[in-house]
Design a protein that fits this description.
The structure is a single chain. This protein is α/β, with parallel strands linked by helices. The protein contains 11 helices and 8 strands. The strands form 2 sheets. Strands 2, 3, 4, 7 and 8 form a 5-stranded parallel sheet that branches. Strands 1-6-5 form a 3-stranded parallel sheet, with no helix packed on it.
Length: 294
Amino acid sequence: MPNYRLLLGCAATLSFTVALAAQPAPKAKPAKPAHSVEAAPKAAASPNVEKEAAPKISATPKEPAITFNSVHVDGPYIAMTFDDGPSAALTPKLLDILAAHHIKVTFFVLGEMVAEHPEILARAAREGHEIASHSWSHPNFAKMSQEGVRSQLQRTDDEIKSATGKRPTLFRPPYGSITEREKRWIHDEFGYDIILWDVDPLDWKRPGPAVVRNRILKETRPGSIVLSHDIHPGTVEAMPSTFDQLEAKGFKFVTVSELLGMATPVTPHPKAEPAEKTATKAAPSAVPESSPGG
């Protein structure tokens, strides 16, 4: 009897073991990849990386300059300019002085003065001087309507053409006062380059011939555009000695258009100190301080 029970127990154990082995094993959860963080989609590259990886786009070419107060030139060339004429009494005297020195200059004339003395302007043009516009009656353009400015320019343009046979290509705003918007539409509509100056002897204050001469000699550099007026006796009186001393310093005289045609690119100079240690200088304004006689 005991042997029977032992045999029966072994048989039951064997049956349970077989039954257990026959059941399907539960599916194991898939293991996470060992490099799950690296396998995930990468975050967007940093701005610096994107900037380096992006194709380089060439910079937009700069628009040609239309405003000038001086010109970078290779050589001792300067342009003498005279505003507000022609004067019946003084401009012929200045023309005689210029002829004696074999110098050509640029006259920025007022239309109303040209209308009064067209023969003087015709002489200036005939003797090789450049004739440019300075408005009809010397108003402040920055305070005028577009139609008012247009009328000033068109009337002067027509008067110069009538006296000399040629229309001007340069314009100097009275007092040097003009808005950026006016520069652009005047250039687009009339084709003028806007001419200012970098040497102003303040001759409209009538300081006397010696002061006018000394200021011009002190401030003039290669590429300078020198402002003066052929309506002041002291200015015309100062010119013979001014021309002599400028020539003695090696300067050569050209018209403004000739000076613009000589323009050369400015060569940047290497900095002597690191950028962060070098004081930054403000760029010079293209517009000089307004001169009541400008």
